[in-house]
Design goal:
Elements lengths: L2 H29 L7 H15 L9 H24 L25 H12 L15 H29 L11 H26 L10 E4 L5 E4 L4 H10 L20 H25 L3 H28 L2 H5 L23 H14 L14 H12 L10 H21 L4 E2 L2 E2 L2 H25 L24 H16 L14 H30 L16 H36 L5
Antiparallel strand pairs: 1-2, 3-4
Helix pairs in contact: 1-8, 2-6, 3-4, 3-5, 3-16, 4-16, 5-6, 5-7, 5-13, 5-16, 6-7, 7-8, 8-9, 8-11, 9-11, 9-12, 9-17, 11-12, 12-15, 12-17, 13-17, 14-15, 14-16, 15-16, 15-17
Length: 596
């Protein structure tokens, strides 16, 4: 790594650490029902929402009631968004007439399977896109559909995280709070103000926010070009903060109207990690032991920093095949050096590599470069982040939930090794909790690997409803190890509710739209439902007294055990597939041959 890239990386880590405590304190106060500096203007609005919706904030729900509310809310969001997508041609704010016979040439029709995939994607916080936003969605669909789903899915993730945290606080009760209250506070006090501030900043830096129709311009060469317009800044801010990283443009944060400068690139990375990082501090504050929160933060930082260093080093090293061919790819003399394929010159290798690690670690899925063009080790880091199960900060709310799953695995194994009943924060961890954790880990891992394998085995009749060219692998633009990596990445991304892609796989077919949608449901709800079941079980247990034999769950020793558990579980599940994909491709690249 070069000194400038190390400096950028260090500054980013310091900035992330600096915002973690104040944001964590604020969120802890919000979800504990305490007053904040926004209570005066927002509390009347909060009470009005409860009154209009018939919600009694004093009524608490059991975990089953909380889970039912979560599922019903998701089903309603899916239905509304699906209808909006299919009917956008009849709805307002559609100056380009998408969804009608008068749509511009090259626009993508919102077919039933594509609408299903898109509605599932944003409802589950995955933001997977098998379409280009600027050629498919109207302004109304972007604002009333994508933006609303970003707020809603992010708020649901926060609500689930909060109710799991409460399970370690209370005892002898089956009640876990109120889903509607937690979701309202998540939106009103956390996501909305942060998104508003972020949108204003992005506007100040040149990100557009307009309802004007697309604009035709004449370039310096005299050719004609259409500039896609729209309400981009507001979309950009909430997509980053809510871990719902679907881009307004197909180029996502690589587009100059979404991410124009290195400063906006830096701030967008901070926005992606701000809430997941702040939740670690909020966790420690809410359980009255700040050491616990800092331990989780430290493990996340170590995993994140390790991935960032490897990805940046690999991208700056470039492609050895080009060096052997006599092509100068070293930094200096008017070029940035390294692997610049698929990257924006205004961000360079370091900014693009760091952004890729942030987006795959945070489950946000926003991109400022083509992940398909990264070196094999750079791609390996991205897939590793996806397959860890959102524990490297992860999504809004779901990230800390997934990390707490790994904490329970660690204390369970540790308890067995020393011959004691496992405990965490005074709550005994028993068979019921571990079954729920294993259900989540096994189901998400199996969904990734089984569907990835099916892609290479299934053959459809050419044409017909499935729109398949025969074998599904004929949708790949690459063969060999890289083709496997593209398929594995698509499956891992959807299960991890991330939404970024390697782009060498055409997924806008009924098969991929339907199966990837199913995997997004698995990745979302087979994390949320087990988490709520664990919360309900722990909440009914009596808090145990800490004794000299209790395994400490803070400090360097436990952090090392937790780090080892994350790496071990990920490696045991995915190492064979990774060996055939990015690892094999890396060795073929250094041997100077193409992978077979």
């Amino acid at each position: 790594m070069t000194w400038p890239s190390l400096a950028q990386f260090a500054i980013f880590l310091v900035a992330l650490w600096a915002i973690t405590k104040p944001l964590g304190v604020y969120m802890a106060r919000v979800f504990s029902g305490e007053r904040t500096f926004l209570s005066r203007p927002l509390a009347p609005l909060e009470r009005a929402i409860y009154a209009i919706c018939g919600i009694d904030p004093a009524v608490e729900q059991t975990w089953t009631g909380y889970a039912a509310a979560t599922l019903l809310f998701g089903l309603a969001n899916f239905g509304i968004f699906y209808a909006l997508l299919r009917l956008q041609g009849f709805l307002p704010w559609n100056p380009n007439r998408f969804g009608t016979a008068g749509a511009p040439a090259g626009s993508i029709p919102m077919t039933p399977d594509l609408a299903f995939n898109t509605a599932i994607s944003f409802m589950t916080n995955a933001s997977w896109q098998s379409y280009a936003g600027e050629t498919t969605l109207s302004y109304f669909a972007q604002m009333a559909g994508v933006a609303v789903q970003s707020f809603a899915s992010g708020a649901v993730g926060l609500a689930v995280a909060v109710t799991m945290i409460r399970a370690f606080i209370g005892e002898r009760t089956g009640y876990r709070g109120n889903f509607w209250v937690d979701m309202t506070r998540s939106t009103l006090y956390v996501l909305l103000p942060l998104s508003f501030a972020g949108a204003l900043f992005l506007c100040s830096q040149g990100v557009i926010q307009t309802m004007a129709p697309y604009r035709g311009v004449t370039t310096f060469e005299g050719s004609k070009q259409v500039i896609p317009m729209g309400p981009v800044a507001s979309q950009e801010s909430v997509k980053l903060l809510s871990s719902d990283g679907g881009g307004y443009y197909n180029a996502n944060s690589g587009h100059p109207l979404e991410n124009p400068t290195p400063l906006t690139n830096f701030i967008e990375m901070l926005l992606m990690l701000a809430v997941p990082a702040g939740l670690t501090y909020a966790f420690g504050r809410m359980v009255n032991d700040q050491r616990q929160g800092w331990t989780l933060f430290a493990v996340m930082i170590v995993l994140f920093a390790g991935g960032g260093v490897v990805a940046t080093w690999s991208e700056q090293a470039g492609n050895p095949i080009l060096r052997r061919a006599g092509i100068d790819s070293e930094a200096g003399g008017g070029q940035s050096g390294g692997n610049m394929e698929g990257k924006e010159a205004r961000f360079g290798v370091a900014g693009s590599a760091l952004f890729s690690v942030v987006s795959t670690a945070s489950a946000d899925g926003a991109v400022d470069s083509s992940h398909d063009s990264f070196t094999p080790l750079g791609g390996l880091v991205q897939i590793f982040n996806l397959t860890t199960g959102e524990v490297v900060f992860g999504g809004v709310g779901t990230g800390i939930v997934s990390m707490l799953f790994m904490v329970l695995v660690t204390v369970f194994i540790g308890g067995l090794l020393v011959g004691r009943t496992p405990e965490y924060l005074g709550k005994r961890i028993e068979t019921k909790e571990m079954k729920m954790v294993m259900l989540s880990i096994v189901a998400t891992g199996a969904a990734t690997l089984l569907f990835a394998g099916a892609t290479f085995l299934i053959v459809f009749p050419k044409g017909g409803y499935w729109n398949a060219p025969g074998a599904l692998t004929e949708n790949l633009t690459n063969r060999g190890a890289h083709g496997l990596t593209e398929v594995l990445y698509a499956n891992a991304s959807t299960v991890a509710t991330n939404g970024s892609a390697f782009a060498g796989l055409n997924t806008n077919t009924p098969w991929f739209n339907l199966t990837l949608g199913l995997k997004m449901l698995i990745g979302r709800f087979l994390v949320i439902i087990p988490a709520l079941a664990i919360a309900g079980s722990l909440a009914r247990k009596k808090r145990l007294i800490v004794t000299g034999g209790t395994i400490p769950t803070h400090g360097p020793m436990f952090a090392a055990l937790l780090l080892g558990a994350v790496v071990l579980v990920t490696a045991l599940t995915f190492f064979p597939a990774l060996s055939l994909g990015p690892i094999a491709e890396h060795y073929f690249m250094h041997l100077g041959t193409m992978a077979p």
